[in-house]
# Entry
Amino acid sequence: MEEPGTDIVKWADEAMYESQPMLKKEGARVTPRVFLLNATPDPLGTLAADMRMYRGDPVYSLDAITDEQRRWAWDELSKTKLNTPLDGVQLKFMIEAVTRSFTHQMVRQRVGAYYVQESLRFAVKRGLADEVAVPPSIASDETAMILWSKMIENIEAAYNGLVDAGIPAEDARGLLPHATTTRIIYTTNLRALFDVAGNRLCTQAQFEWRAVFIGVMSAIKEYGRVSRSFVGEFADDRWQWELIAEPKAYTFTPICYRLGHCAFMSMLDRGCSIRERVNEGRFADIHPEEWMADPMAGVTMTDKYRNQPRPE
# Structure
């Protein structure tokens, strides 16, 4: 039996390696998964220290900050545009089973973020048919799914044939579809994260973004449950991460929640299943699952803004 990895030396480039399979349940399709690898300890204490400095009230130890002051800082940040303290809370996520299309969009955010991504120049994708992400509109259509599957099988055969024939992965990857899944480490801060959430949780963005942010919110919420503690009186910070993960108007919600109206009213924009209620200020009538969990929320053609005549 060959030692693990010995087949790689047969390939064109010694730097090539076989990509690890994406984590998924047996028999299931790949879906985005998000892991919060590390984050600023005592995040709300950190915010409170910065907020108190605005008032000339210096903090010499986070141990001196009470939980009431932590909650005060979080609430006050929702009432002001002066939200620079959010920069002080850093988070490092590992996101996997997202498409190359997704990461091409993600890395456009250059302020308050940096990235490390698995490289298809060297990572050889085996089992492509099981590793591509199938869009919801295709997965729900039997005819479309047949066409999709046949094409992926052909691409997989051609890609494997090229690599096995000695073609470098960086050249063979030209055949791989945008739906090829990848991994990326995303390091950011709370302010940048909330800015991205406002734009990408909007139904105008592709549904994959909402699927990722469901994972982001879950990863933040769960982070404090994995034995996260720090020195001082406040040994259990789980409640802080749970509070941060709650969708508020200034955190994990579409941009319309912050503006009070839809920001995509052009005839060039897509429809939206919640737009009419947003513009009437009926946010209380909107359940988060309507925009967060419905892949078709941004492609509906039923609202009155889509029934206008288009120019010839």
Summary: The chain is about 35% helix and 10% strand. Residues 142-164 form the longest helix (23 residues).
